[in-house]
Automatic annotation (TrEMBL):
Cleavable signal peptide: 1-16
Lineage: Eukaryota, Fungi, Dikarya, Ascomycota, Pezizomycotina
Protein source organism: Venturia inaequalis
Family annotation (InterPro entries): Metallo-B-lactamas, NDM-1-like, RibonucZ/Hydroxyglut_hydro
Protein name in the entry: Metallo-beta-lactamase domain-containing protein
Annotated keywords: Signal
UniProt-listed Pfam families: Lactamase_B (PF00753)
Length: 314
């Protein structure tokens, strides 16, 4: 397996020029004084990364807005008190100044936890001049129908944004409806709460499903046609110092890990899969850049709704 990853990385270096370039900031740490409700970063002129302020909710989730010629895709709607509609309106309005054609906005989710769907009430019926909205609800049936999956979770679906192809990968485990998005234009792999620098929660009754999803994700990454520049999740909870994390509830993280992870993180995770087994004692398994938090077998995280009731949700 190690030799396969070396070969994969070498091929990636040879083919990286085929990807549309973009720039990530040195960090997403928000300023101490008067931080904006949303930090918006243009990765390039049609790819936007948004981060909700920790002053509104400690989860501080990331959202992603990707533009094609006639369609755009929003990945998640944020956590409590985020109110994403105004900032989404501004980004789209600025984009349409340069690209004045009518646009369909497709709103989807990495998964169904509250800190990724709290803005749904604003985005479900989102409206602005020149824009229509298609909303894919955050439940398994709607995800299967909305992305036209033919065999969940074995097969990949394709979301065509007109000149921009997104591969939609089923990765149930963290929740039954979890997905990842691979953007063939930029090589960005968006992995929600299933791969990111922080606490990856796994319900005890979903360990087998989680491991199977990770193996499929790794196989996808190893295919030579899939040039992965960065893996981008929806949170940062890890510190720059290996094996250290910020406590749950931290609103500002001045020494946080970068958002982006190298694709080799999938190999690191693969090596640790043998630590996960059905019936194991719940607890946290810490790695260099992430951790797994295994919940009790009766914890159904997809039903968690509010931080005051369930303080460990992420």
């Amino acid at each position: 397996m190690y030799l396969l990853w070396i070969a994969f990385l070498f091929l990636g270096l040879l083919s990286a020029s085929n990807l549309v370039p973009g720039v990530l900031p040195p960090s997403f740490v928000e300023p101490e004084n008067n931080p904006p409700l949303w930090r918006v970063h243009a990765y390039n002129n049609n790819t936007y990364i948004l981060r909700q302020s920790g002053l509104t909710d400690y989860e501080k989730p990331f959202l992603y807005l990707l533009f094609g010629d006639q369609k755009a895709y929003l990945f998640d709607t944020g956590s409590l008190n985020g109110h994403p509609a105004p900032i989404i309106t501004k980004i789209i309005a600025d984009y349409m100044v340069v690209h004045p054609s009518p646009l369909e906005l497709i709103v989807g989710h990495s998964h169904s936890h509250w800190d990724h769907v709290a803005g749904d009430s604003e985005m479900k019926n989102f409206s602005m001049p020149g824009v229509t909205t298609k909303f894919i609800a955050p439940d398994l049936d709607s995800v299967i129908k909305g992305y036209s999956f033919h065999s969940w979770p074995e097969k990949i679906a394709v979301l065509d944004l007109s000149s921009r192809r997104l591969d939609v990968l089923p990765i149930p485990g963290h929740t039954p409806d979890a997905i990842a998005i691979y953007d063939r234009q930029t090589g960005l792999l968006l992995t929600g709460d299933s791969v990111y620098p922080g606490r990856i929660y796994i319900p005890g009754n979903a360990i087998k499903v989680f491991k199977e999803s990770h193996k499929r994700l790794q196989r996808f990454a190893l295919e030579s046609a899939n040039e992965i520049r960065w893996i981008l999740g929806c949170h940062i909870e890890q510190k720059k110092t290996p094996f250290e994390e910020y406590p749950i509830g931290t609103r500002r993280q001045p020494d946080e890990h970068t958002l982006q992870l190298d694709v080799s993180i999938l190999e690191d995770m693969s090596k640790g899969l043998d630590k996960l087994h059905v019936g194991m004692v719940p607890g946290q398994i810490m790695f260099k850049e992430f951790s797994w938090v295994v919940q009790g077998a009766n914890d159904m995280m997809q039903e968690w709704k509010h931080v005051d009731q369930f303080p460990l949700a992420t």
